[in-house]
Amino acid sequence: VGPAGDVWLGIAAASSQFPVTRHLSTAAVGAGVIAQFQSSGMPVWLTRVGSASSQLGKMAVDPFGRPTMAMGNAVIQLDASGSHVNFTWSTPGATPGVIAVGADGTIAVVGSASEISVKNAWQPNRDPAGNGFLALLSSRGVPDVITYLPGANSGARSVAVDPSGGVHLAFDSEAPTLSPVGGAAPPHSGAPVFVSVDRGDSWTWASS
């Protein structure tokens, strides 16, 4: 929901009769529909994106009105008019799940991963106990950070970006060897929670 009350929706539309105003998909049936509605409930635009087999995931909208969503194994951003794909980002082995955006358009992506190519990683090695990952993308979809989240059995549960650009992340971890950065580490209890206030440069144990 935007500051003016506009609402953005991600819809899994199986019918070819679903009314759309724009087509950015090669699929006549299936794929996803991204839509913007005014606060009155009137549609601004409805755009079909992705392929027939694409699974539409979580979506977030930045302060500039650009919707970014997880779709299958990729992250896709549309422009504010729903007319163009600004970028598509993916990395082999990763499945995006939850997305958050910052005030400057920075994008935080969490999900599950097998073997991925890391970048500026806090945890560069995959832990056998779990398969979570975090990626921080610029507003243009260029990755600044790609890191594992050791012991995160089903990926991360939630992520948020605060007004100053700090990334806040919550995930379950079963990795007793997980290395916190900053703060003191309490005894491992199976599900620690970490907080970063400097865009992932350091992480502090928030609770156990």
Fold and architecture overview:
By secondary structure, the protein is an all-beta fold. It contains no helices and 16 strands. The protein has a 4-stranded mixed sheet with strand order 1-3-4-2, with no helix packed on it. A 4-stranded antiparallel sheet has the order 5-6-7-8, with no helix packed on it. Strands 9-10-11-12 form a 4-stranded antiparallel sheet, with no helix packed on it. It starts with 6 loop residues before the first strand and ends with a strand. The model has no long low-confidence stretch (mean pLDDT 77).
Compressed to H and E, one letter per element, the order equals EEEEEEEEEEEEEEEE
Low-pLDDT sequence parts:
none
Tally of contiguous helical segments? 0
Chain-averaged pLDDT: 77
Instruction: Report the sheet with the most strands, covering strand number, pairing sense and barrel closure.
Output: 4 strands, mixed
SSE class: mainly beta
Work out the strand percent.
35-45%
How far from one another are the termini? 33 Å
Helix % is: under 10%
What overall geometry do the principal axes of the alpha carbons give?
Answer: globular
Strand order within the widest sheet? 1-3-4-2
- Rg calculated over all Cα atoms: 18 Å
Number of β-strand runs: 16
Salient structural properties:
single chain; four-stranded antiparallel beta sheet; mainly beta; 208 residues; four-stranded mixed beta sheet
